[in-house]
Amino acid sequence: EGGYPEIVKENKLFEHYYQELKIVPEGEWDQFMEALREPLPATLRITGYKSHAKEILHCLKNKYFKELEDLEVDGQKVEVPQPLSWYPEELAWHTNLSRKILRKSPQLEKFHQFLVSETESGNISRQEAVSMIPPLLLNAHPHHKILDMCAAPGSKTTQLIEMLHADMSVPFPEGFVIANDVDNKRCYLLVHQAKRLSSPCIMVVNHDASSIPRLKIDVDGRKEILFYDRILCDVPCSGDGTMRKNIDVWKKWTTLNSLQLHGLQLRIATRGAEQLVEGGRMVYSTCSLNPIEDEAVIASLLEKSEGALELADVSSELPGLKWMPGIAHWKVMTKDGQWFSEWEEVPHSRHTQIRPTMFPPKDPEKLQAMHLERCLRILPHHQNTGGFFVAVLVKKSSMPWNKRPPKIQGEPVEPREPVRSSPAHPAEGAAVDPAAPESKAASGMDDTDATERSESAENSSSRKDGVCGPPPSKKMKLFGFKEDPFVFIPEDDPLFPPIQKFYALDPSFPKMNLLTRTTEGKKRQLYMVSKELRNVLVNNSERMKVINTGIKVWCRNNSGEEFDCAFRLAQEGIYTLYPFINSRIITVSIEDVKILLTQENPFFRKLSSETYSQAKDLAKGSIVLKYEPDPAKPDTLQCPIVLCGWRGKASIRTFVPKNERLHYLRMMGLEGLAEKKKEGTVVAQESADSSGLPEDEVSAEHGAEQATSAGASEDASADT
């Protein structure tokens, strides 16, 4: 179309390699290759927390999919999207509609619009089917501490956050997700994805996964090492399972990519295994079909772990999913097609490129005990997906080089060099010479002792203030942008009592977990994290490069001093705060919600009398608008909605970002109204809430004066 030559979907070396390795069952080769040449079907996953997800599913099935039923586009009948058979509760769907058709045909315009808008507001995510598998197999629960080692762009991370919030009525689950990526720019992509779920239990950090630092937490006044209950290790890979969507892989494929990545993959997996708690579960996954990146890494990790790790049998965990068992025999091929079946055959000149860990274990008993057949390889032609590999590991005991129990407390502080030996060593030491994982470099615990000593001497003062600044650059190279510090609000901060009083916050409100991003000057935004994440932040500030954490719960009003409370509620954090707020709540009907979301500044008289009677005695300022579904009317919206609003002199307005507002209207079957509003008016709150610059947010009262709206333009200026 663009005048570029068509990419030829052929690669003889690729075919030769995988036919030789026999990863595809007898007689299925042609189907396998055919599937790889077909474009990937679009898949989408309904994200978000339980009650909202159910509403979106209801809306998709009964409205949008129904409209696709008898459609023809370019003479081709549109297949109605189908749920993925193995994904729980019908929350993932696939369709044969290619992106091109979706964008081009006018009949699908509405459906496309829906997809785009709902993706923006974080209610669905366009995620490849196979990439949904690792989080499901992690089997995470709300109390689990989870590490996502190579997390960007973040679709798997969002799945994990949803698992933490399985029970919507608990605003602060005990677990958390620490999402890491080595690439600073991609970390911001991760922040964007995670923000759509507004969880106080996620932290994005920027480290090399193969040497991600060991963190400390405070357990009953003792410093202890943080071990994770669940670790997702979705490593960088050659990506030959993604040929259906990344067409240039056809041209570029060679075995060299795998040979170069194997060492890094093994180091990352090793580092993960070290930080896993005994009894914990780690999922290792790649979007590559190549045993060098798949079984070879697992076999080598199992061998190195000397029984500390085992492959779990997950064959019954995702009924409906088709997969091939892992293989136990494979060979290594150079980029020019030369094969080696064991390490001894490899000439010296090739030793830097080909490593002993790339070959299957020799000892047949050892090999059998590993149960490599418990790995899952997903082939594209079995369920019309991408290619993928997953292995689930369970930790039975400490890794052999970490056997010595860590000495942390009560040891004499000798004047020893306070070295911060980087925790990269154990992994590298072990990977470079698989024969000697016992070496000093791999002892893994020495760094703890040293770090402890140098720390206690160093930063005791700054930590008392609850300031978690960016790590000092002499200890850690800072990549990318220098982040603002994370400062917890002190116990006696005069900022808090007026807020507490104005919103009648419950005594159980965890004010210790409020933080700002500035050490001096006026605090503009207040953020909130769970107490477990606070523990991690306060105890690791100089060890860890945090890109983002916490959700915004309050923003300062520009002219806030004249109201009883200088801070207004932020929609982003309202679902977390709501359970603690005991005043300034107005219960609204579904009719009120419609008016509030489609009109800029509706006067009290436009709202129901119940709403008016609740609003009339409230002082001016920030309010909560709460809609409770009525089970007796099943055709109305069946999920609770909490909106932030503002009570003006004679009117009420909502402070809800545009895409979230459209989402609620769509759930009520009113997207037509949303469209009208979009064309007809300039909406102050949109520019305010979606600009991403909270400082510039229009103070509600002034915004009201300038904003005119379809409903209240005749005397909007009188209404403040």
Keywords:
alpha+beta, Rossmann fold, 10-stranded mixed beta sheet, 6-stranded antiparallel beta sheet, 31% helix, globular
Please characterize this protein's 3D structure.
The protein is of the alpha+beta class and 720 residues long. Among the domains are: 41-126; 129-150 and 209-402, Rossmann fold, CATH 3.40.50; 584-671, no CATH class. It is built from 25 helices and 30 strands. The strands form 7 sheets. Strands 7, 8, 9, 12, 13, 14, 15, 18, 19 and 24 form a 10-stranded mixed sheet that branches. The chain has a 6-stranded antiparallel sheet with strand order 20-21-22-23-25-26. Strands 4-5-1-6 form a 4-stranded antiparallel sheet. It starts with 11 loop residues before the first helix and ends in a 14-residue tail after the last helix.
Please give the structural blueprint:
Blueprint: H1 12-21, H2 29-37, E1 42-46, H3 50-67, E2 72-73, E3 76-77, E4 82-83, E5 92-95, H4 99-104, H5 109-120, E6 124-125, H6 133-138, E7 145-148, H7 155-164, E8 176-180, H8 184-195, E9 202-205, E10 216-219, E11 222-225, E12 228-234, H9 248-252, H10 256-274, E13 276-286, H11 295-305, E14 309-311, E15 324-325, E16 332-333, E17 339-340, H12 364-370, E18 376-378, H13 380-383, E19 388-395, H14 424-432, H15 446-458, H16 460-464, E20 467-468, E21 486-488, H17 496-502, E22 514-516, E23 525-528, H18 531-539, E24 546-549, E25 551-556, E26 567-569, H19 574-577, E27 585-588, H20 590-598, H21 609-615, E28 621-627, E29 641-647, E30 652-654, H22 658-667, H23 671-680, H24 684-690, H25 700-706
Parallel strand pairs: 7-8, 7-12, 8-9, 12-13, 27-28
Antiparallel strand pairs: 1-5, 1-6, 2-3, 4-5, 9-24, 10-11, 13-19, 14-19, 15-18, 16-17, 18-19, 20-21, 21-22, 22-23, 23-25, 25-26, 28-29, 29-30
Helix pairs in contact: 10-11, 10-14, 22-23
